[in-house]
Amino acid sequence: MIGFAWGSAAALALAWPSTADWWIMATGAVTAASCAVLGAFLVLRRMSMMGDAISHSVLPGLAAAFLLTRSYSIGPLLAGALVAGLLTALLTQTLHRYVRLPADASMGVVFTSLFALGVVLITQVKGVHFDRQCVFEGAIELAPLYTISIAGIEAPRALVVAGVVLAINAAVLLLLWKEMKLSAFDPALSTTMGFPAGLMHYVLMSLVALTAVASFEAVGSILVVAMLIVPAATAHLLADRLGAMVLLSAGLGAASSVLGFALASHFDTNIAGMMAVAAGGLYGLAALFSPRYGVVSAVIRNARLALRVIRDDLLGVMYRLEELAVDRRLTSRDAVQAVGGSPLARWGLAGLIRRRQVLRRGETLELSPEGRAAAQQLVRAHRLWENYLVQYLGLPLDHVHEPAHRVEHFLDPELQASLERKLPDATHDPHGRDIPS
Amino acid sequence: MTPAFEIHDMTVAYHRRPVLWDIDLQVPEGKLVGIIGPNGAGKTTLIKAALGLTPLASGKVEIYGKPYAQQRKMVGYVPQRESVDWDFPVSVHDVVMMGTYGRLGWIRRPGRTQRLLAERCLEQVGMLPFAKRQIRQLSGGQQQRVFLARALAEQARIYFLDEPFAGVDAATETAIVELLQTLRGQGCTVFVVHHDLETVRHYFDYVILLNMRLVACGPVHSTFTPENLQKTYGGRLTILDAAAEAMRQGEPGP
């Protein structure tokens, strides 16, 4: 955290050979993964902002540790950060529980005050040399400059620290996997079984504090906060098992780092910032395209449903026309007009023709045998439902067509069978028309 | 014989405002017990206090003569269905496995024995075909069955169920009652927070009538009487009536 002017660092980043680039990416990726595995539990416990709070409030812990020991060595700094992190969690809970401040407000009060205290300490007290910009943005581009030697390899110190933190997080999570899972899902049951949810909360908070302080020297608080929340939120959209979510979260964190580095090199901008932006971008993609919750997937699902309803309606119109035994045959234009005349209607008709349920005969259309069978099923469902509404819900005759029209598309064979059991001798609908079999 | 469940002179308070006053009761083994009372009577609080989830202002709770902390493995708990996040990334089978965690203790991982047990419990509630489902895909009744299967996996002697019939279909309600009766048949004692007064006589053989204080506790036939129900549900109403009358007249009541 010794200050370097940001501009010269960027210039250095461009000039460095690619081994340095790899070290930066690896440092970012491992740091992100160590944050992201914890993030999964923060997101599931609905305390994502606790990651934010703790990563800010470790600052006074660092400053106080320095003031007490007058050294930059990692041990006292970690201890200070851990104490500050746990104090944040404890104060937040105390304010919430005993002073009855709402949970979000108590978190806000605690971490902004502690963070401000930290800022005051590092700017006002003589002898503390923290670079404030470094606290926010980190100095990941400088990571390859400070190396230590491990098994003959000169590796960036930040990468080694991040690796150790990741290993600690992974070890604790593996060891306490079932306890973490249970206390996150059902804290009350966890407590009654003798795994106090409060204790698990502080275990998690300790890991967050440790990870935050170890990471933000290298990558800055913006990236720590982002990596504690965003990859996990993305993974939550995509995974439906806890193990998968945690691994995916770590993978997404690492991927965001690599992607962010590439983008930052391309646009020649802040690397840590770009890594966080990349994580946000991946979340955006997941929010759009996730099969279950994605916006685009929902639009596609709705469009498919609308198309199916239109096709059903077209079949119904043609069947009812046949039923009236009039000679009139619909043209494509008539058919499309009959179901609303929208582009969707034309698309639906094209679909029926492609499925060979409707055949073209010169200018006009007619049902194929398969089309007629499908239409019969539909009209049957419609008229059974009308009967059901009259007999069981006591609706008047002029009120049953519309509801039946809405429901007919969703009466699968199973539901139809139970309708038939309820209406054993239904041969005609309430208006007197045959129910096709 | 030691009663299965005993509360001595217990008061529970939230922020120094008592919500349960001086409760004193005993329930013998092998009973199916309904905990009955109006909203805000402290039914959930009674369960939470019994399970050590809420601190006691005074008094004590004993499970077979010993404090809860020493008897954890004898007790199964089914919290209210809405108390958990049904979007949580776990399968039905995972949730039932959680029932086995208590007996495993810290750090030990569930193995084959626990998996088989979970499957048996799922089978008992008719949810085995859903074992691999993500829990968000379940209906309310299915969620409740999964919770019940998880409680079975706890292999307890005493069960506490918080509103297991809330928002479930008729078939599930019947299935749950039958299962609880089977448990009673095996010598278990089962406590159920219950709302529907109509069904009390059919479902339970013992009741705890509660409204901030204990109104009565005993066998259904002698305890679930109109007089006791009047005390349980009526106390609040007369005060409300008096208050409403005072408000209507625009001045404090007599």
User: Structural class of the helix and strand makeup of chain B?
Assistant: alpha/beta
> What kind of oligomer do you see?
heterodimer
Return residue spans of chain B where pLDDT drops below 50 for at least 5 consecutive residues: none
Query: In whole angstroms, how far apart are the ends of chain B?
Result: 50 Å
In CATH terms, what is the architecture of chain B? Answer: 3-Layer(aba) Sandwich
- Count of individual helical segments of chain A: 18
Largest sheet of chain A: 2 strands, antiparallel
In helices, the fraction of residues of chain A equals over 70%
Q: What are the low-pLDDT stretches of chain A, counting only 5+ consecutive residues below 50?
A: 1-17
Helix content of chain B: 25-40%
**What fraction of the residues of chain A are assigned to beta strands by DSSP?**
under 5%
Give an overview in words.
The complex is a heterodimer of chains A (437) and B (254). Chain A is mainly alpha-helical and 437 residues long. Chain A has 3 domains: 6-290, ABC transporter involved in vitamin B12 uptake, BtuC (Orthogonal Bundle); 297-367, Arc Repressor Mutant, subunit A (Orthogonal Bundle); 379-422, Orthogonal Bundle (Diphtheria Toxin Repressor, domain 2), CATH 1.10.60. Chain A has helices at residues 6-15, 18-44, 48-69, 74-97, 103-124, 132-137, 157-175, 177-185, 187-192, 197-238, 242-267, 271-289, 295-323, 332-338, 343-354, 369-393, 401-407, 413-422, and strands spanning 147-150, 153-156, 358-361, 364-367. In chain A, helix 3 (48-69) crosses helix 4, helix 10 (197-238) packs across helix 11 (242-267) and helix 16 (369-393) packs across helix 17. Chain A is elongated and about 100 Å long. The termini of chain A are far apart. Chain B has 254 residues and is an alpha/beta fold. Chain B has a single domain, classed as P-loop containing nucleotide triphosphate hydrolases (Rossmann fold, 3-Layer(aba) Sandwich), CATH 3.40.50.300. Helix content of chain B is 37%, strand content 24%. Chain B is built from 9 helices and 10 strands. In chain B, the strands form 2 sheets. In chain B, strands 6-7-8-3-9-10 form a 6-stranded mixed beta sheet, sandwiched between helices. In chain B, strand 9 and strand 10 (213-219) form a beta hairpin. Chain B is globular and about 65 Å long. The model of chain B has no long low-confidence stretch (mean pLDDT 89). Chain A binds chain B through residues 44, 46, 100, 175-179, 181-182, 184-186, 188-189, 191-195, 236, 239-242, 244-245, and chain B through 15, 48, 51-53, 69, 72, 75, 77, 79, 83-85, 88-91, 94-95, 98, 101-102, 104-107, 109-110, 134, 136.
